Every structure is written in structure tokens, then in C-alpha cells.
Amino acid sequence: MINCQNITKSYQTGETSLTVLKDISFEIKKGEFVAIIGPSGSGKSTLMHILGALDKPTAGKYFLNDKDISELSDDDLAEIRSQEIGFVFQSFNLLPRASVLRNVELPLIYDTKTLRSERLTKAENALSAVGLEKERWHHLSNQLSGGQMQRVAIARALINEPNLILADEPTGNLDSKTGDIVLETFKKLNSGKGHTIVLITHEKYVAEHADRIIEIRDGEIISDRSENHDGLKDK
Ligand SMILES: Nc1ncnc2c1ncn2[C@@H]1O[C@H](COP(=O)(O)OP(=O)(O)O)[C@@H](O)[C@H]1O
Ligand SMILES: [Mg+2]
């Protein structure tokens, strides 16, 4: 699904060039649950922007579902982002004065091909998938707890049934107990529905929820290992 080949990303500010990703190569297969871990400033968000087709590498190739992202037009990239990728961010990015259902439907509101009733059904399915209690669905999003808000944001990311979910520090604004519920939600989506999940974090205990951990430091991969969850009790 994801194939990065010798990806380098540099930012040019005035005279100076800062190389944030250095010759990064890895693959992620459909159905994997992978964490990318590294300290602040190591290049995680930069990498996520490339994986999410929000930005292009300075050098190297990125193939998403066998398509060479560097050769696509902005319109094609926008189409891929909306159809194939669901994004989840640290700050949930919900519309505070809109209902939960409305927030989840939002990516489809300008999609003239989708009927209103179909939109609603999809939103309800997505909210069921993240386990948000039905009685919350008509609440305004700003009436929810942080953990509930993040589950609404995950439901919104699921609305087009994307193959790939990219989550950048999704538990960063949550206490550890609420964070666990959100991580459990990702785990269920991965094992139950087969969504491929890439979870970006700087926290080891968050990364340990994944089946594979790619560690980056100063823009380079320093380890890539599969986690052995045997013996760990599933909470
Ligand atoms: N648009 C940009 N222009 C210049 N420098 C940037 C830009 N985005 C990120 N950087 C720099 O790239 C480095 C990595 O940033 P980032 O990918 O956000 O790291 P992380 O998500 O791991 O904290 C940092 O030094 C940051 O200042
Ligand atoms: Mg970041």
C-alpha cells in the first residue's frame, strides 16, 4: 500500500536549506498497524504529510497503492486524499457549533453524488464503528469530552471508508485513560475492519499499541521492528 523509496525532504528558508527527512525507505502493507515514533522535531509530521499526499518529497519516490504520487496533479492528489486516506490530528479539528453527525458527514457535504440519506447512513455507520454512544450523536461537538471528540474525528476520517488512516499524535491532547480508549478504537478498526493504520507519536507507550514500530531520529529510520504482543494482556 505504502512504498517509500529513498525519500528526502528539505525546506528552504532564505539562504539556508534544512534537510528534515534523509533517504527514508520502507513499505507498509495493507492491513498493517504501524506506529512511527520519534522525538519532537525528528520529522514525523513532515513524513505524514508526504504519506498523506499533502506534500511531495524533494527527492525519492512515494508510491501509494502503486501510484507514483510525484507524477499526479493537484486535483488527482485531492481526489486520492478524499477517497483513500482518512486523517486524524492531535487537535480534533471539529466544528464546535455543529452536531456530531454533521461533523462526521462534513467530508461528503459537497459531494453531489452522495444523497443526503446515504450520507447520514454512512455517518451513522462510522460513529458506530468508533463506538460513540447513540445519545451523543445529536449533541454539539463542543459538548463532548476530549476522548469523545477524537472518536468523532476518527469517524469523520472513516466516512469514505478509506484504506489508510493516518493519525498524527491523536492522543496528544488526551489524558492517558482517554487516550487508551482512542488507541483501542484504532486497534478495533485495524483488527475488525482491516483498515491500515499509521499512528504517529512521540510516546513509547502509545507506539506499543501497534504491531510494528518504525523509529525515526533526526530524519532517519533508526529501527523498524515488529512487536510481540504475546504475553501482554489485551485490555
Ligand atoms: N514548512 C516548514 N518549513 C521549514 N521548516 C520546517 C517546516 N515544517 C517543519 N519544519 C522543520 O522540520 C523539522 C521536523 O519537523 P516535524 O516534521 O514537524 O517534526 P515532528 O513532527 O517529529 O515534531 C523541524 O526542525 C521543523 O522546524
Ligand atoms: Mg509533529
UniProtKB/TrEMBL annotation:
PANTHER family: CELL DIVISION ATP-BINDING PROTEIN FTSE (PTHR42798:SF6), LIPOPROTEIN-RELEASING SYSTEM ATP-BINDING PROTEIN LOLD (PTHR42798). InterPro entries: AAA+_ATPase, ABC_transporter-like_ATP-bd, ABC_transporter-like_CS, MacB-like_ATP-bd, P-loop_NTPase. This is ABC transporter domain-containing protein. Belongs to the ABC transporter superfamily. Residues 2-235 form the ABC transporter domain. It comes from Candidatus Kuenenbacteria bacterium RIFCSPHIGHO2_02_FULL_39_13. GO terms for cellular component: membrane protein complex. PROSITE patterns: ABC_TRANSPORTER_1, ABC_TRANSPORTER_2. Keywords: ATP-binding, Nucleotide-binding, Transport. GO terms for molecular function: ATP binding; ATP hydrolysis activity; transmembrane transporter activity.
